[in-house]
């Protein structure tokens, strides 16, 4: 769980912003809710010096990265950075291709805790992708500092089959998320939240587990169209559905909006601890679709102690009643039911659960054996 600069800030990322975001992560209660990593995405770079060592942009990161890492660590948080398997990043900044060991050592020396590793300007074939990700994964281990390794080749080379072996802790399963329910018309490589949430990760459940996760891309909650990515924004109802799906999918939760100026609705979505508890459940199982009937979908995530996280979703244009029978959920007997957005106990049920659900909305329930 954390925050990444790309979706909200893009090229505008600088040390002052990292400091403001880290402070806000603490003061808003995000840190207490579990958010930990502050990740600098593309465009932090200045260049390489005569010895080939990377350095950051001198105007936007005037003190360098190490003092920023110290500052972030002093707040009890962790710092992440971004690089690329090619010789240039997607933003045409210096990539780590050909400098893998040197850059991993640089990141370790700076006190970096997380590296997102992209795949622009790198060879397209799967074997080379596996080799380059493995090489950088080994370089991170050899650098001697624990760093989360986030693999970002957009799902193009079936990373769920090899990324964990390459040392990866999470891997993107698709192209970039848009701040939009449906796919925006342009540019073509963005995907809408509905498709990512309901389709992209289906069938990949078996590859996820503690320490190795399918990553459907970062959150767009609260961007409301003020972003660096495609899309005009979504309603709070849709942002709640987006967050709920990511929690049921055991997906990494990387917020993107400006934590220092987000509104109350955004904060209450991002810090709903009962929904976050589904995401962070120690079993680490990725939830999946258990039933669907037209626009109504039932998703289920097995939790520790025999509990279940259940999502009742309505993808349709009108409000609808969404129902899940015990048969849909493959359970029997009596279960206590709690609504995790209303924060209400709904009593004990023995055969089914149902809810009135707004268009593009959801009800998220926790079922515990009675
Ligand atoms: C894309 C990646 C985005 C962002 C961007 C930076 O390839 O999917 O999440 O990192 O590059 O240029």
Model description:
This protein has helices at 6-9, 15-27, 30-33, 66-74, 100-110, 126-142, 193-200, 236-248, 264-270, 273-279, 326-329, and strands spanning 2-4, 37-39, 45-48, 54-56, 78-84, 114-118, 148-152, 170-172, 176-177, 190-191, 213-215, 254-255, 288-293, 296-302, 308-314, 320-325, 335-339, 344-349, 352-357, 362-369. With 370 residues, the protein is of the alpha/beta class. An eight-stranded parallel beta sheet has the order 11-8-7-6-5-2-1-12. Helix 5 (100-110) links the parallel strand 5 (78-84) and strand 6. Helix 8 (236-248) runs parallel beside helix 9 (264-270) and helix 8 runs parallel beside helix 10 (273-279). The chain starts with a strand and ends with a strand. The model has no long low-confidence stretch (mean pLDDT 98). The structure holds beta-D-galactopyranose. Beta-D-galactopyranose binds at residues 6, 41-42, 89-91, 118, 120, 152, 176.
Integer average pLDDT: 98
What characteristic shape results from the CA principal axes?
globular
Bound molecules: beta-D-galactopyranose
Tally of individual helices = 11
Strand content: 25-35%
Descriptive tags:
single chain; 370 residues; alpha/beta; six-stranded antiparallel β-sheet; 20 strands; binds beta-D-galactopyranose
Task: List the SSEs and their pairings.
Blueprint: E1 2-4, H1 6-9, H2 15-27, H3 30-33, E2 37-39, E3 45-48, E4 54-56, H4 66-74, E5 78-84, H5 100-110, E6 114-118, H6 126-142, E7 148-152, E8 170-172, E9 176-177, E10 190-191, H7 193-200, E11 213-215, H8 236-248, E12 254-255, H9 264-270, H10 273-279, E13 288-293, E14 296-302, E15 308-314, E16 320-325, H11 326-329, E17 335-339, E18 344-349, E19 352-357, E20 362-369
Parallel strand pairs: 1-2, 1-12, 2-5, 5-6, 6-7, 7-8, 8-11, 9-10
Antiparallel strand pairs: 3-4, 13-14, 14-15, 15-20, 16-19, 17-18, 17-20
Helix pairs in contact: 5-6, 8-9, 8-10
Bound molecules: beta-D-galactopyranose.
